[in-house]
Specification:
With 384 residues, this protein is mainly alpha-helical. It has 20 helices and six strands. The longest helix has 24 residues.
Length: 384
């Protein structure tokens, strides 16, 4: 969203609305909680997004009322449990204190998994080849659930081997082939007959997708793991949550939007099409006011299709939009001619590393996640 489409207030107005000093206001800005812009009338003056100010006011009000805070604890922004795995801070994503974008420049998914899960043997993780039946001609989700539902071949009490096996199984669901022994990104590139330069982009995508704090799918994994369910079943729960259109399933909506854009007359004039008010899915993330750093890192150096590059440029100029990881995955799929649906497969395979880390961490905490519900009488009940 560009500055021209925002309601802006002065520092005095923002501070008064929040009941804080200017110093505290500047601290909120530095933490990415409030967006600030140079005034078009006086470059020395800063203006502040009124929506961000009001969001903080509502959040503080909830915390003053425990019942209201509890009722909205599962909404965006309010932490509900502790984790040492990943953190979103100042517009950046960290895996155990390591910047995820920096890590993605050289690391493999296996190395990201070792960082997140901890206690994994490097050689065993790299060479694990679980025995399984051929995935068969099924959609990715069906293949993954089928492979994860087969009995584990590893003896109990070896979580490291089981973690490695699950990573390979989910990767096999993406490739449609038996688990390989090479790096997962290289196996995928070979199975997908991708051009040589695509292998590195696939590697970066997997690492950038590895975890994202307490995402919806990670929460589903933790709830499942808290019951004592197996690691495989916990990952199945994560896959099911990821498939929703408000999570990883958003890649299907992005692809449809890009294909419609490319086929329409608006492809030659992106700004004109955006001006019609048509929504562009996955070009803004609530946790990254300045843009999703994962999307930017993945698209860096990728030979985008001309219409995709034009869309990014138009969104940046007219709406302040930046590609989230969902949009970047689809643009990567299109740039290298990867199989249709590869974007979601990359998301799921990469995120499996984080799901396993969340499941292991939840097991160590040893507590059952069992929130309470507040019963309300609906209009249908009243009229019955």
């Amino acid at each position: 969203m560009g500055m021209s489409s925002l309601d802006l207030v002065s520092a005095d107005e923002a501070s008064a609305r929040l009941g804080i000093s200017r110093a505290s206001l500047y601290a909120y800005v530095s933490r990415g909680l409030i967006r600030s812009f140079a005034s078009p009338h006086d470059p020395r003056q800063r203006l502040y997004a009124a929506d961000d100010v009001e969001a903080l006011v509502r959040r503080r009000t909830r915390f003053r009322r425990p019942a209201a805070a509890a009722a909205t604890a599962l909404d965006w922004g309010l932490p509900v449990l502790e984790t040492g795995l990943s953190q979103i801070k100042d517009g950046r994503l960290f895996y155990r204190g390591v910047d995820a974008v920096d890590l993605s420049r050289t690391a493999t998914l296996e190395e990201a998994a070792r960082l997140l899960v901890g206690g994994l043997d490097e050689e065993a993780l790299a060479a694990a080849r679980p025995a399984c039946t051929a995935p068969g001609p099924l959609p990715f989700m069906a293949r993954a659930i089928r492979l994860l539902s087969e009995p584990a071949s590893e003896p109990p009490g070896r979580p490291g081997a089981e973690v490695a096996a699950i990573l390979r199984l989910v990767a096999a669901a993406g490739s449609g082939t038996a688990p390989g022994a090479g790096p997962i990104h290289a196996d995928l590139a070979t199975a997908w007959a991708a051009p040589p330069e695509a292998a590195d982009a696939i590697r970066r995508a997997l690492v950038l997708c590895a975890d994202h704090e307490l995402s919806t799918s990670a929460f589903a994994v933790r709830v499942t793991a808290s019951t004592g369910a197996s690691l495989r079943h916990a990952v199945v729960a994560g896959l099911c949550a990821l498939s929703g259109p408000l999570h990883g399933g958003a890649t299907d909506h992005v692809r449809a939007f890009l294909e419609e854009w490319e086929a329409g007359e608006g492809a030659a004039d992106p700004a004109a099409r955006i001006a019609t008010g048509r929504p562009a899915p996955s070009f803004h993330h609530p946790l990254y006011p300045a843009g999703d750093p994962r999307g930017a890192a993945l698209l860096d150096g990728i030979p985008l299709r001309a219409c995709d590059a034009a869309l990014l440029d138009a969104l940046g100029r007219t709406a302040g939009g930046r590609a989230t990881i969902d949009a970047a995955l689809v643009m990567t799929e299109r740039a290298y001619g990867l199989p249709r649906g590869a974007a979601f497969a990359l998301f799921a395979i990469g995120r499996t590393a984080g799901w396993l880390a969340h499941a292991v961490e939840q097991r160590r905490q040893g507590s059952l996640i069992r929130p309470r519900a507040r019963y309300v009488v609906t209009e249908e009940d009243r009229s019955a």
